[in-house]
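Incident log, structure service

09:12 report received: a user says their structure output differs between two submissions of the same chain.
09:20 pulled the input from the user's history:
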Amino acid sequence: MMTSENKAKWLAALRSGEYVQYRGCSNNDLNDGIPTARCCINVGAHAILGDDANKMPTHVSAINIGIDRKDSYDLIEMNDRKFLNFLEIADWIEENVESK
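09:34 re-ran on a clean worker, output below:
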């Protein structure tokens, strides 16, 4: 289960406007000062784990930050198939992802 502290970091990162949203639930590191494009799960992993998250596939990132399988599937669906933006996804996480 995700900690409350990590959940807060994830929500802040999703709402920060610092990340470009990437469909396909992967990350795409860009250079020359352009923000890194990431899926919603990788935004959380980067906010919580730092640059180590750049080397992880999405499913590994999800496990490492405490997202359960059902929530992972829901988040991938919202990010990749329903085209929800990060603010909408953050609202869903706030209401639905358990933390301790």
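09:41 both user submissions now match this output. Likely a transient worker issue. Closing.
09:42 reviewer note: DSSP finds five helices and three strands in the chain. Residues 14 and 86 are 5 Å apart (CA to CA).
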